[in-house]
Sequence to fold (279 residues):
Amino acid sequence: MTAAPLMPAIDLDASATAADVRAFFGRDRLIAAYALADLDPENIDQSRWWIARRGEDIVAAALLVEVLPFRPCFAMGESQALAELFRSGMTEARLILATPPNGRLPIEASYRFERIDVMHRMAVTVDRFEPRVTHAITRLTVDLLDDVIDLYGNASRSYFTPARLERELYFGVYAGQQLVAAAGTHVRSHGAGIAAVGNVLTRLAYRNRGMATSVTSAVTEAALQMHRDVVLNVRQDNAPAASVYRRLGYEVHGPFIEGPAVRRAVWERLTKNLFGRTS
Fold:
């Protein structure tokens, strides 16, 4: 009997270019939508990335946005390569990690999730989109920034900057002088042709009136005028929200998990690798 040939070892590529990472994430551009936007030329200096190769082939990649205090990180690829990447490449003490389901176990060898949200990435194209706007909609521009912060809370002040409202697409519903519902794009990538919708919020007293549907529809319609695909995230157990998005034409593209994670202590990583502990 002839022994099976050994597979090439996993090596981390410290000289990988943004084009290398972009090409790899492009294999599933809808799951990697946020990371692809972070690789656009105007954002590239805000991010850092790691590549794992098996021989000449890229088999895993991770991207970290360094300018945000909560340190969002996206990773995808082969399980063995992800394990090596997070063991020897990534050294951040704390991250907000997002990865397809196969990434959980290899990443957990080096990082401990404090909470895991099981999500669906949903997507829509202009051919499937079904607009549903039943309220008067206002484009939220820089001159309405104070209203936006009032809705999302004072803690959002560092997130909602004039530059963000100029760059992204936000729409809202007013009741009198008060902004009572809003939604917008988290990120947009002209290079990848993708926009990600989120931050859907309605004041408690105005819920169950279809306002969230109206603002999500307005943002989606505006984004589809400039981008080939629009995506959003929804928890897998949030059936009412998923139903709203399906009525707008969104379909589930695939699952992923996300949550805050802390790097395990050296002794904990060794124990995890030796005995497969999951705590």
Q: What stands out?
A: The chain has a mean pLDDT of 92.
